[in-house]
Amino acid sequence: MSACISLSSKVAIVTGGGRGIGKAIAKRLAEAGADVVIASRKLENLEATAHELSSLPGQVVPIACHIGRLDQLENLVCETEKRLGPVDILVNNGATNIGQGPSLDVTDEMLDKMVEINIKAALRLVRLTVPKMIDRKSGGSIINISSIAGLHPQPEGLLYSFTKAGLIMMTRSWAREFGPHGVRVNAIAPGLIQTDFSEILWKNEMYQQAIKTTQPIRRIGQPDDISYAALYLASDEASFVTGQVIVLDGGAIA
Question: Catalytic pick from 160, 207, 228, 232?
């Protein structure tokens, strides 16, 4: 698909871009010619990824950023604009998942952290980028990485499920509001994907057995499975697509 889609002259930000799904998306966008800023807290991971992807048509630029902090998000957008130009594509992929366990064990601190990273960061980045997309009248694409946990409650995953559900509703609300200005907003809801982030699940024998016996596509998803959908949503080929949640889960919740 990347050979057919061109994102030449486009600028993208991918949070959580140093590894896993974010890294796969950054690679796919840069293959299509976009210049991509990858952001996360650990600069060494970002630099390693940028070096690995340095031969692609688009630049891949690492910028350290704690997405839970407004000043660092402001710096992320400012540095992106300085180095590469105005942002055309925003991929809200950075997330955390603390507080797994019984819902009655959830603390205020856990709640605050999950909202800060999984919800507020996306809201702030949209606030920092979309007004400029609207002013330029050149369109734009926001891609929010949600989860099937936002559509179907994850066992003992209250905080993760409700923040990912919140991101889906934000996607739909933003799509209605920004669509008349040419800015599209969509979400991807992955199932179980083999990344460091989800290691506790895909290494669990019970989950592996469920996939092998009940999931229609009987394998664990890979980051590349998500990246192709993100490439499509970022491109002009998806110019009539907004407010949608694309579920990529091997049929797990079908």
Answer: 160
pTM over 0.85: yes
Q: Is 228 a catalytic residue?
A: no
Q: Which residue has the tokens 């630029």?
A: 61
The CB density around residue 22, as the number of other CB atoms within 10 Å, is 30
Residues 6 or more apart in contact with residue 219 via CB below 8 angstroms: 211, 250
* 59 part of a folded domain: yes
Question: What's 135's domain CATH number?
Answer: 3.40.50.720
- Give me the phi and psi of 97, to 5 degrees please: -145, 80
Number of domains in the chain: 1
The three-state secondary structure class of 194 is coil
**Does any domain span residue 214?**
no
Range of the domain at 30: 11-191+225-247
| pLDDT tens-place string over residues 215-249 | 899 888 999 999 999 999 999 999 999 999 999 99
Q: How many CA atoms lie within 13 A of 153 on its CB side?
A: 9
Q: What are the CA-CA distances from residue 83 to residues 53, 107, 221 (Å)?
A: 18, 41, 34
Please state whether beta strands 11-15 and 35-40 pair in parallel, antiparallel, or not at all (unpaired): parallel
